[in-house]
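CO-FOLDING WORKSHEET

Operator: S.A.
Ligand of interest: zinc ion
Run index: 225
Mode: holo prediction, single chain
Checklist:
[x] sequence pasted
[x] SMILES validated
[ ] output reviewed
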Amino acid sequence: MANFRTHMQVASTVSGLLAAGMVWAGEASLTEGCLLWLAGSLGGILPDMDSDSSRSIHIVFRLFGALAAILVLLYGRQHLALIDTLVLGALAYGLMRYPLCWVFARFTVHRASLHSLLANAVFGLLSVVVADRLFGLDADMAWFTGLFVVLGACIHLLLDELYSIDLEGRRIKKSFGTALKLIEWPAPLPNLLLLALLGAGWWLAPAQPDLGVLLARLLPVSHIW
Ligand SMILES: [Zn+2]
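OUTPUT RECEIVED:
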């Protein structure tokens, strides 16, 4: 399986090129382009967040901590004094970063349900919801954010699968076929949970734009020559 560095490098290169193409073609502003680049790079490490020893889990839970703190800030701006907001925000970050991260690591198995295409779809859809509801991006840009996360996560699974083919020895390692899968099977409970999250994401996401139009904006090939 590919290591953290390879995952980060490939996902950020591919999403960086695509985001740069969109900025060049005027389909995204520079800020939006940077956001999409980050989304694609993050997608590249999300499937390994269930590996307790990986750097991915720490990065992802720091990010969740930041999102929790932002939520508190948005709530505090309306309802709380500054000092209460700051204390609660720090608490929310700490809670996400330590106890919840620990519980998550304890109850997940590496390369199981979260290392699947179903989980990638959940990551993408939840990113659409966060981009729309928390950061107030317009619907198209929110869906682009989700698309980049899915792209990065699919690159991750593909890389892991490629790394299980030992090209020099022309043999296939035992891990072949465990990385790129539609769903983990049999694992009814985690899969049900993922399907429930998928449904909730679909319900909370803004109306989905025409996928063909999104893809045409994502790949401005007509502009290349
Ligand atoms: Zn992996």
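REVIEW:
The CA atoms of residues 113 and 189 lie 10 Å apart.
The helical segments are 4-24, 30-43, 55-79, 82-107, 117-134, 139-163, 188-204, 211-218.
[x] output reviewed
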